[in-house]
Amino acid sequence: MIITDNHMHIYKHLGLKALEEFKSAGGTHVFLVSLLSHHYDVHPKSGHDFKKVFESHLNLVKKANKIVKTYAVLSVHPAEITVLGQRVGYNKAAEIMKEAIDLAGELVAKGEAVAIKSGRPHYKVDAFAWKMSKEVMLHAFKIAREINCAVQLHTESFRLEGMIEIAEMADKVGLKRDKIIKHFAPPKIREFEEIGIFPSVIAGNDNVLTAIKQGTRFVLETDYIDDPKRPGAVLGPKTIPKKVKELLEHGFGEDLIYKICAENIEKIYGIEL
């Protein structure tokens, strides 16, 4: 049975042992997402400085593939707008982020990664930082459309109006809405289906059960962050295998699990598991 975690990080706590735990619980496939540049001791002056970030992440993914099937997502995290903006100003920060997205797109086009990550801050920022964040996100959509890849989005908490706005931004540049994945999504499956964006449901509490009662148009994630300061955050690496087994105990069949963990993944990313 294929069991996929759509969004996980490896950092400085369990490291690759997190994937061993995932595998031991029944997990088979994982999408590893790179972190902010400062996690790699990189303090970018240009987008080209993200080369070290992405190379480090791709090397990690190679090691991870010896444990479970692992795919790379290259992130230019929207929080970079404030991290970099405090040092170089928001205009320059946005320029750096766009250049980094270009680099990420080149690596996806070469087949070294399967998706890019962008978005806008999940915390309050001033109007200009918000405007520049949206410009960066729109640039990510343009690159994704050019190379026909998916975009994982880190955004503010779910609001119908906000998701519609994002979907319409994608329309402007010709990116298909089902190539956009809302990372850390709530189990609002029907709303997401109406909008066209794909939810990557955070698998805590009763979210998985709530989601599957509405349909199968979603994927699952833990957003495990592997931070020694927050060892269990966001959810542990065994969570999704456990939640999938709970679905089986509730009488949901393996065909539904396959739809969520395999078919949807293949459709979004254009890959074959």
Would you give an account of this structure?
The chain is an alpha/beta fold and 273 residues long. It has a single domain (4-269), classed as TIM Barrel (Alpha-Beta Barrel). Helices cover 47% and strands 15% of the residues. It has ten helices and eight strands. The protein has helices at 17-24, 50-64, 80-88, 90-109, 127-147, 160-173, 189-195, 207-212, 239-249, 254-269, and strands at residues 4-8, 29-33, 69-75, 115-119, 150-154, 180-185, 198-202, 219-221. An eight-stranded parallel sheet has the order 1-2-3-4-5-6-7-8. Helix 5 (127-147) links the parallel strand 4 and strand 5. Helix 3 packs across helix 4 and helix 4 (90-109) runs parallel beside helix 5. The longest helix is centred in the middle third of the chain and has 21 residues, at 127-147. The model has no long low-confidence stretch (mean pLDDT 97).
Which class do the helix and strand fractions yield?
Answer: alpha/beta
In the CATH scheme, the class would be: Alpha Beta
- Approximately how much helix is present in the residues? 40-55%
Tally of separate domains: 1
Mean pLDDT: 97
Q: Estimate the strand proportion.
A: 15-25%
CATH superfamily caption:
Metal-dependent hydrolases
How many β-strand runs? Answer: 8
End-to-end Cα distance: 12 Å
CATH topology, anyone?
TIM Barrel
Q: Helix segment count? A: 10
- The assigned CATH architecture is Alpha-Beta Barrel
Global shape:
globular
